[in-house]
Amino acid sequence: MTDHPPGPLWSGRASNRAQWLIAAAGAACLALGVELAVDSAWTAGIIPLVMSVVGCLAVGLLILYGTLAFVHVAVTVDSENMEVRCGHIGLPRRRIRLSEITAAEFVPRITPQQWGGWGYRWRPEKGTAVVVRRGEGLELRLGDGKLFTVTVDDAENAVRVIRTHLRALTR
Which strand ranges, in their side-by-side order, compose the sheet holding 72-77? Predict the structure, then answer.
Protein backbone atom coordinates (compact mmCIF):
# COMPACT_ATOMS: atom_id res chain seq x y z
CA MET A 1 0.00 0.00 0.00
CA THR A 2 1.40 3.40 -0.97
CA ASP A 3 0.99 6.59 1.00
CA HIS A 4 -1.02 9.22 -0.79
CA PRO A 5 -0.50 12.87 -0.01
CA PRO A 6 -3.35 14.27 2.05
CA GLY A 7 -6.03 16.09 0.12
CA PRO A 8 -6.97 19.69 0.70
CA LEU A 9 -8.81 20.53 3.90
CA TRP A 10 -10.15 23.71 2.31
CA SER A 11 -9.93 25.35 -1.09
CA GLY A 12 -11.35 28.55 -2.47
CA ARG A 13 -11.09 30.96 -5.37
CA ALA A 14 -11.71 34.57 -6.20
CA SER A 15 -12.18 36.01 -9.67
CA ASN A 16 -12.27 39.41 -11.30
CA ARG A 17 -14.19 39.59 -14.56
CA ALA A 18 -13.23 43.23 -15.09
CA GLN A 19 -9.66 42.09 -15.70
CA TRP A 20 -10.85 40.47 -18.95
CA LEU A 21 -11.63 43.94 -20.33
CA ILE A 22 -8.08 45.08 -19.61
CA ALA A 23 -6.76 41.85 -21.16
CA ALA A 24 -8.75 42.68 -24.30
CA ALA A 25 -6.91 46.01 -24.50
CA GLY A 26 -3.61 44.11 -24.25
CA ALA A 27 -4.72 41.77 -27.04
CA ALA A 28 -5.63 44.81 -29.16
CA CYS A 29 -2.10 46.25 -28.66
CA LEU A 30 -0.63 42.91 -29.74
CA ALA A 31 -2.88 42.80 -32.79
CA LEU A 32 -1.88 46.34 -33.72
CA GLY A 33 1.80 45.43 -33.43
CA VAL A 34 1.33 42.40 -35.68
CA GLU A 35 -0.72 44.46 -38.16
CA LEU A 36 1.99 47.12 -38.33
CA ALA A 37 4.70 44.49 -38.84
CA VAL A 38 2.85 42.57 -41.54
CA ASP A 39 0.98 45.19 -43.51
CA SER A 40 2.90 48.43 -43.22
CA ALA A 41 3.85 50.71 -46.06
CA TRP A 42 5.44 53.39 -43.95
CA THR A 43 7.59 55.73 -45.91
CA ALA A 44 9.01 57.41 -42.78
CA GLY A 45 11.69 54.74 -42.46
CA ILE A 46 12.41 51.47 -40.76
CA ILE A 47 13.36 52.83 -37.32
CA PRO A 48 9.94 54.40 -36.54
CA LEU A 49 8.26 51.23 -37.83
CA VAL A 50 10.39 48.93 -35.65
CA MET A 51 9.86 51.17 -32.61
CA SER A 52 6.09 51.14 -33.16
CA VAL A 53 5.92 47.37 -33.65
CA VAL A 54 8.15 46.57 -30.67
CA GLY A 55 6.29 49.10 -28.50
CA CYS A 56 2.87 47.68 -29.34
CA LEU A 57 4.02 44.09 -28.82
CA ALA A 58 5.76 44.90 -25.52
CA VAL A 59 2.81 46.85 -24.12
CA GLY A 60 0.37 44.17 -25.27
CA LEU A 61 2.36 41.37 -23.65
CA LEU A 62 2.82 43.29 -20.41
CA ILE A 63 -0.87 44.10 -20.18
CA LEU A 64 -1.89 40.53 -21.05
CA TYR A 65 0.45 38.92 -18.52
CA GLY A 66 -0.33 41.51 -15.85
CA THR A 67 -4.04 40.95 -16.16
CA LEU A 68 -4.30 37.26 -16.95
CA ALA A 69 -1.98 36.42 -14.05
CA PHE A 70 -4.49 38.07 -11.71
CA VAL A 71 -7.86 37.23 -13.25
CA HIS A 72 -8.32 34.72 -10.46
CA VAL A 73 -6.58 33.29 -7.43
CA ALA A 74 -6.85 29.77 -6.03
CA VAL A 75 -6.07 29.10 -2.36
CA THR A 76 -5.65 25.62 -0.91
CA VAL A 77 -5.10 24.63 2.71
CA ASP A 78 -3.89 21.13 3.53
CA SER A 79 -2.55 19.68 6.79
CA GLU A 80 0.88 21.29 6.27
CA ASN A 81 0.61 24.31 3.94
CA MET A 82 -1.50 27.08 2.54
CA GLU A 83 -0.81 27.55 -1.16
CA VAL A 84 -1.84 30.56 -3.25
CA ARG A 85 -1.75 30.24 -7.05
CA CYS A 86 -2.55 33.11 -9.38
CA GLY A 87 -3.93 33.09 -12.90
CA HIS A 88 -4.28 30.31 -15.40
CA ILE A 89 -0.75 28.97 -15.09
CA GLY A 90 -0.54 29.33 -11.32
CA LEU A 91 2.15 32.00 -11.26
CA PRO A 92 3.03 33.77 -9.13
CA ARG A 93 2.68 31.11 -6.45
CA ARG A 94 3.23 31.29 -2.71
CA ARG A 95 3.35 28.39 -0.29
CA ILE A 96 3.25 29.11 3.44
CA ARG A 97 3.80 26.32 5.94
CA LEU A 98 1.10 26.29 8.62
CA SER A 99 3.88 26.03 11.21
CA GLU A 100 5.03 29.53 10.10
CA ILE A 101 1.61 31.09 10.84
CA THR A 102 1.03 32.64 14.27
CA ALA A 103 -2.45 34.08 13.62
CA ALA A 104 -5.19 34.02 10.97
CA GLU A 105 -7.90 36.67 10.66
CA PHE A 106 -10.98 37.00 8.48
CA VAL A 107 -11.08 40.41 6.77
CA PRO A 108 -14.60 41.24 5.49
CA ARG A 109 -13.55 44.03 3.13
CA ILE A 110 -10.31 44.31 1.21
CA THR A 111 -10.03 46.78 -1.65
CA PRO A 112 -7.39 47.16 -4.37
CA GLN A 113 -7.05 50.83 -3.31
CA GLN A 114 -5.77 49.72 0.13
CA TRP A 115 -2.92 47.91 -1.60
CA GLY A 116 -2.23 50.22 -4.55
CA GLY A 117 -4.09 48.15 -7.14
CA TRP A 118 -4.68 44.59 -8.25
CA GLY A 119 -2.01 41.94 -8.24
CA TYR A 120 0.78 40.72 -6.01
CA ARG A 121 1.47 43.70 -3.76
CA TRP A 122 3.90 44.73 -1.05
CA ARG A 123 3.52 47.67 1.28
CA PRO A 124 6.09 48.18 4.07
CA GLU A 125 3.43 49.07 6.65
CA LYS A 126 1.02 46.28 5.63
CA GLY A 127 3.06 43.35 4.33
CA THR A 128 2.34 41.32 1.19
CA ALA A 129 -1.00 40.67 -0.51
CA VAL A 130 -2.59 39.00 -3.50
CA VAL A 131 -5.57 41.16 -4.45
CA VAL A 132 -7.71 40.12 -7.43
CA ARG A 133 -10.96 41.86 -6.45
CA ARG A 134 -12.58 43.81 -3.66
CA GLY A 135 -14.31 41.83 -0.95
CA GLU A 136 -13.55 39.30 1.73
CA GLY A 137 -10.20 37.71 2.33
CA LEU A 138 -7.87 36.43 4.97
CA GLU A 139 -4.83 37.86 6.69
CA LEU A 140 -2.05 35.73 8.13
CA ARG A 141 0.52 36.89 10.65
CA LEU A 142 3.72 34.94 10.11
CA GLY A 143 6.35 33.97 12.66
CA ASP A 144 8.70 36.69 11.41
CA GLY A 145 6.02 39.33 12.15
CA LYS A 146 5.13 39.91 8.49
CA LEU A 147 1.55 39.88 7.20
CA PHE A 148 0.20 38.06 4.16
CA THR A 149 -3.27 38.94 2.85
CA VAL A 150 -5.26 37.32 0.04
CA THR A 151 -8.72 38.02 -1.35
CA VAL A 152 -10.65 34.77 -1.62
CA ASP A 153 -14.27 33.65 -1.40
CA ASP A 154 -15.30 31.74 1.74
CA ALA A 155 -12.33 33.20 3.63
CA GLU A 156 -14.08 32.79 6.98
CA ASN A 157 -14.02 29.00 6.60
CA ALA A 158 -10.37 29.09 5.53
CA VAL A 159 -9.52 30.99 8.70
CA ARG A 160 -11.48 28.44 10.76
CA VAL A 161 -9.52 25.54 9.20
CA ILE A 162 -6.17 27.29 9.68
CA ARG A 163 -6.95 28.16 13.32
CA THR A 164 -7.96 24.55 14.01
CA HIS A 165 -4.60 23.36 12.69
CA LEU A 166 -2.72 26.07 14.59
CA ARG A 167 -4.29 24.83 17.83
CA ALA A 168 -3.29 21.26 16.95
CA LEU A 169 0.30 22.37 16.22
CA THR A 170 0.64 24.12 19.60
CA ARG A 171 -0.37 20.99 21.54
Answer: 10-15, 72-77, 81-86, 93-97
Give every CB contact of residue 65 below 8 A, 6+ residues apart in sequence. Answer: none
Claim to verify: residue 82 and residue 29 sit in the same structural domain: no
120 lies in which domain range? 73-170
pTM for the predicted model, two decimal places: 0.76
- The Cα 114–Cα 94 span in angstroms is 21
104-128 per-position pLDDT tens digit: 999 999 999 999 988 899 999 889 9
80 and 37 belong to one structural domain: no
Q: Which of 95, 117, 22 is nearest to 63 (CA)?
A: 22
Amino acid at 108: P
89: which DSSP letter?
T
More confident residue, 119 or 103: 103
